[in-house]
Amino acid sequence: MSTATTTTQVDAEDLRRRVRDLLAEHDPKTTDRLEFLRARFDAGLAWVHYPVGLGGLDAPRALQAVVDAELEAAGAPDNDPRRIGIGLGMAAPTILRFGTPEQHQRFLRPLWTGEEVWCQLFSEPGAGSDLAAAATRAVRDGDEWVVTGQKVWTSTAHTARWGILLARTDPDVPKHRGLSYFVCDMTAPGVEVRPLRQITGEAEFNEVFLSEVRLPDTLRLGEVGEGWKVAQTTLMNERVAIGGNAIPREGGMVGVVAQTWRERPELRTPELHQRLLRLWVEAEVMRLAGERLRQQLAAGHPGPEGSAMKLAFARLNQAISGLEVELLGEEGLRYDDWTMRRPEIVDFLGRNAGYRYLRAKGNSIEGGTSEILRNIIAERVLGLPAEPRVDKDVPWKDLPR
Amino acid sequence: MTDLLYSEVEEDLRASVRGLLADRSDPATVLARVETDQPYDLDLWRTLATDLGVAGLHVPEELGGQGASTRETAVVLEELGRAVAPVPFLGSAVLATSALLGCDTAAAEVAALASGERRGALAVPLSAAPSAPFPDTVRVDAEGRLSGRVGTVADAAVAELLVVPAAGPDGPELRAVDMPSDGVTVSGIVGLDLTRGIADVTFDGAASRRLAGPDVAGTALTNALITAAGLLASEQLGVAQWCLDTTVAYVKERHQFGRPVGSFQALKHRLADLWLDLVGARAAARYAADALATSSVDVPVAVAVAASHCSSVAVKAAEECIQLHGGIGMTWEHPAHLFLKRAKSTESALGTPGRHRAALATLVDLPAPVA
């Protein structure tokens, strides 16, 4: 991040002083939550590595922990990051990198405070792993774009004010070159959000139907035809966000099963015992691998292990949650409730064994399928050649679908 | 949290060992040697032990060692595994040295092994698991004479000092026998592993001296086996790394159907999965080496996790290496079989994966069902 707008490098002591000033002027006990969050943003203490004036101080990203700890100790409210993860993790870095100064000013503050929720309009029924094949059309009409198409797997679309949208602006060039990136006004006429019910019975996600939605050109992020490049920034940040935090031993799905094993001796069988021990070892090994990755990042040597962690996490979650249903025997035949609902927050370890088993199936599909991740490892880490492609130099409109 | 990375010093050490092995012990050289009457490369061993000083890395300086730790020993083992180098490192620098470090009266022996002046071996079957009871196949009488037999002892054929667990009149002891010695027969075995010698050792009234009595012998032996099992994981990581690297290089070169076979997803996905297994194996092996270096309370769990995981990963890597090389992988001429034989043999060394998982059941409170 550039430090051109600051004259001195911000350090931890400086941040503590700024937090004290913020707390002195806006006592969390007597200040309205939103008012406090806005004041925190304006003080540059929202995300300290962002530029001055946009919620940050051009400070090293690692110093954010200092601010968070001080504010938590003071009992200050946070911005409920789990509720606005797509905005914080994907939209914000993309807006920061490709947005105009006007877009920075308009979007980042309410995004961070949670006043405006964001969603991601990327995947389509016909463009999943092959995201660059997206068929949603955006046609220029004066200072506006007219958008028509269907997006899918859109979490928080029903609460979102804005969406980050990938749409085809030129069908006559090869697929990667004919995309543009927009901010979609989710309140605009022609935007219809329908819940997408999953195998768990819940609808965490939505389908979004866009019918001649008119978006002003001022909502475009990046140049026309550069949508794929802009989307790479979004997707890179998604992969950083997945599988990032330190966990204690037995911190994940394996802990749930281990506890059942300890508390319910009547359920134990020799065959399940062997499988449980294997999975326990695998879970511990991947926990250590995650820890090693974090140490590499901290030492300034980002390793390629990041893409591996999600692959391992999916495989383990599925195997362990499957074993849990078997272990529970008769109880594993029950399910708590198939009623369609829209959960606010998704907990892979929540509800019951059947839910955990079913929800884990999504782990190898969402955010890049395990097959695509294996391709990434094979090509970018091991340097193996790509499969011959038949779609790279063909105009998008001529591709078989 | 434990440091799971490699320090600069460790990377320098790796570079020296790797350079030496590339120069003196490439796979073709090793393959040519295994069927001669000199399967061990004792010149290479002397260079490693005396010039590079790697035999006493985890021995304190006051006992004649380098005063480093098992972290550095583990790095050496990774490189020796990557080259399936035919040197008695596991038997002498790991098993015998670790056992001697647990004895009260073994300072001279430790120093001799640490400096590379002598080579040692620990007279237990290579398959001995840390959880196994103290062996009773060798007995020591009141005059210190040994009798009995131990099979499949690693690196015994070139040992100048045998450290022998023996049942004494008052309980378990560790005894020292200088080799060669009257009353001791060491018979080399044709082993599955072509690059690490094993031998049957028979004692028939051989003279010995006491290294540890009943109060410490059991602990010394168990700790030596735990240390060795934890460090063997690093050797297995090295074996797996050679297999992965060699296979990846091969599938980029080998063309069938007009393309490099490495461009087929069926093969790419298998290699991606194998790479992921190695990411885990490296973390587990580093964690075990570090736990041993710091005498962490978590040593038993760390070792059981690393030993069970890395054993299986090495075997899988070697098996994939053979398969993905196709016909050439099945030939004697290609060195892949040396790695398969090492991997499969070490899977049974110092406790099978299943035995280590059984130990974990107790350590982490996941008890077996009551029959």
Automatic annotation (TrEMBL), chain A:
Domain Acyl-CoA oxidase/dehydrogenase middle, chain residue ranges per copy: 119-203
SUPFAM superfamilies: Acyl-CoA dehydrogenase C-terminal domain-like, Acyl-CoA dehydrogenase NM domain-like
Record keywords, A-Z: FAD, Flavoprotein, Oxidoreductase
Gene3D superfamilies in alphabetical order: Acyl-CoA dehydrogenase/oxidase, N-terminal domain (1.10.540.10), Butyryl-CoA Dehydrogenase, subunit A, domain 2 (2.40.110.10), Butyryl-CoA Dehydrogenase, subunit A, domain 3 (1.20.140.10)
GO molecular function, one term: oxidoreductase activity, acting on the CH-CH group of donors
Domain Acyl-CoA dehydrogenase/oxidase C-terminal per the UniProt entry, residue ranges: 225-382
Span of domain Acyl-CoA dehydrogenase/oxidase N-terminal: 16-115
GO cellular component term, pick one: plasma membrane
Cofactor(s) needed: FAD
Pfam family, one: Acyl-CoA_dh_M
Domain of life of the organism encoding this protein: Bacteria
Family under the similarity heading: Belongs to the acyl-CoA dehydrogenase family.
PANTHER family: ACYL-COA DEHYDROGENASE (PTHR43292), ACYL-COA DEHYDROGENASE FADE34 (PTHR43292:SF4)
Protein name according to UniProt: Acyl-CoA dehydrogenase
The organism of origin for this protein: Gandjariella thermophila
UniProtKB/TrEMBL annotation, chain B:
Keyword set, alphabetical order: FAD, Flavoprotein, Oxidoreductase
Domain called Acyl-CoA dehydrogenase/oxidase N-terminal: residue spans: 8-91
InterPro entries (alphabetical): Acyl-CoA_Oxase/DH_mid-dom_sf, AcylCo_DH-like_C, AcylCo_DH/oxidase_C, AcylCoA_DH/ox_N, AcylCoA_DH/ox_N_sf, AcylCoA_DH/oxidase_NM_dom_sf
Keyword Flavoprotein applies: yes
Swiss-Prot/TrEMBL cofactor(s): FAD
Coiled coil spans: none
Domain Acyl-CoA dehydrogenase/oxidase C-terminal, first and last residues per copy: 228-361
MF terms in GO: acyl-CoA dehydrogenase activity; flavin adenine dinucleotide binding
Protein family according to the UniProt entry: Belongs to the acyl-CoA dehydrogenase family.
Protein name, as recorded: Acyl-CoA dehydrogenase
Organism field: Gandjariella thermophila
